[in-house]
Amino acid sequence: MRILHTEASTGWGGQEIRILDESAGLRARGHDVRVAAPVEAQIFSAASRWNVPVYAVALDRRTPGSLMSFVSLVREFKPDVICTHSSSDSWIAALAARVPGARAAIVRTRHLSTPVRAGALNRWLYGSVPAKVVTTGEAIRSLLIEKLSLDAEKIVSIPTGANIERFRPGDRAAMRAQLGLGGKGLVIGIVATLRSWKGHRFLISALEHPRLANARLVIVGDGPQNNPLREQAAPFGDRIIFAGQQNDVAPWLQAFDVFALPSTGNEGVPQALLQAMATGLPVVSTPVGAIPELVTDGETGLLVPPENSSALAAALARLADPDLAARLGSAGQKRVSARHTSQAMLDAMETVFREVVAKQR
Q: pLDDT of 322-333, one tens digit each?
């Protein structure tokens, strides 16, 4: 199949990484998969690392020029499927599909649990335009069905999968030495774009708890909250390490004792949380979005109320118990291996694409 992914967002996070992982995975299965994005988007420059062809189209601008550029691309590439991911590119693809010579089956992927505004336009965009809607969690699927009164048969939940060959337990001491994370005490890690709703500020505040007096925090990622978070972290000195954006986060995960993701909203099934669990780390998170589909409190991790640094600190302190940490880490790793691998994601997406192409033809 010829598959074209579109992404209007110029930022970077799990959504963009999923697009590239999925594209590379399906290309390895023999499909011709390409991406269209604004030239200034981070996914545009990152695509080469995944060996995924990318086209420069100003999909972040809903203008006649952007529409015609996209129509020209579709006429040239002739995709069987256009898979859209954000608002602007979904609107442009919806309009392009009505132009002769630019028609293709459309699949709309919804990554976030941010509420969708009810109304005729969104019902058209999600209900009439796409042949199928894919969500990254069952909670998002239910939200769309309820909010927009959509046909449940048309919407399928396909969580992002983790590459369990790449993300697996490693030699913690060796990784710490390699990354310069020597020292004593519990090492808490977070891998996430520095956005307000990822909850970094509550994680930094949690270090004030007496039971975490010897703990250190490693923050992997970059983003709009970088400066405010660094200011908040300054009084903690070298107890908080900002590692910045990393192309390969696997060694960092292998170096941590505990993984935390205290999100306050918007989540599907977070990619970093999957990767941490695949690595065998005990995790602490919040019951936001589709996270409870992955983390069962006390079974595959610990869940705490969002925006609650005290509860977060108490949960992290519990994981200083090596027996509890090992039990939760092992159970989390087994859940990812059983339900949330990249191969399972690729199988499911391939099935969706084949179904909509067959229907289109």
A: 999 999 999 999
163: left (phi over 0), alpha (psi -120 to 50) or beta: beta
Structure tokens at 93: 């693809």
When pLDDT is averaged across residues 236-253 and rounded to a whole number, the result is 96
Backbone angles phi, psi at 226, to 5 degrees: -55, -55
CA–CA separation, 274 vs 205, rounded Å?
24
Radius of gyration, alpha carbons of the chain: 21
Name the pLDDT band for 115 (thresholds 50, 70, 90).
confident
Sheet containing 81-84: order of strands: 54-56, 32-37, 2-6, 81-84, 105-110, 132-135, 155-157
Q: Which domains does the chain have, with CATH numbers?
A: 2-161+342-360 (3.40.50.2000), 172-339 (3.40.50.2000)
Place of tokens 């590692």: 243
| CB of 257 closer than 8 Å to CB of 319 | yes
Alpha-carbon separation of residue 214 from 139, 150, 210, 240 (angstroms): 37, 51, 9, 11
Is 1 in a helix, a strand, or coil? coil
Amino acid making up residue 171: D
| Interior angle at CA 284, CA 281 and CA 285, nearest 5 | 125
**CA atoms 161, 167, 169, 175: torsion sign:** negative
Please give the C-alpha separations between residue 79 and each of 32, 218, 358, in angstroms, as whole numbers: 9, 42, 13
DSSP structure string for 327-339: HHHHHHHHHHHHH
Q: How many CA atoms lie within 13 A of 327 on its CB side?
A: 12
3-state secondary structure of 100: coil
